[in-house]
Amino acid sequence: MFGFTDISFDKYGWLTGPIFQEKEDIIFGNADRYDEHSILHVGRGLLPVWTYALNYTYGTAGGGWALSVYGKQFASRETAVDFGLSELKAKIQSKIGDTDTTNF
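The structure assignment produced for this chain is given below.
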């Protein structure tokens, strides 16, 4: 759906991934420290189809994924950003009041 159809290999014989167009990283927090920021990645395929990916942190824990053709698909950058922000907000809000201190 993103318009990527070629299968190619790098100089070592590894499959190369699709190269998303108009990629943007929106950083929240202190980017100078790996444990003090989250990133919303947005990108467009060869067709005008957008997706997003998140890298999020709760301090000493977090998670994330890369832009992928398996990501959710959106007709516009704005819609992808809105959806990604909503997911990031929900992930962070789910930790408010959490008494789990096993990561400290």
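Interim note for the steering committee: Residues 21-93 form one domain. The mean pLDDT is 90.
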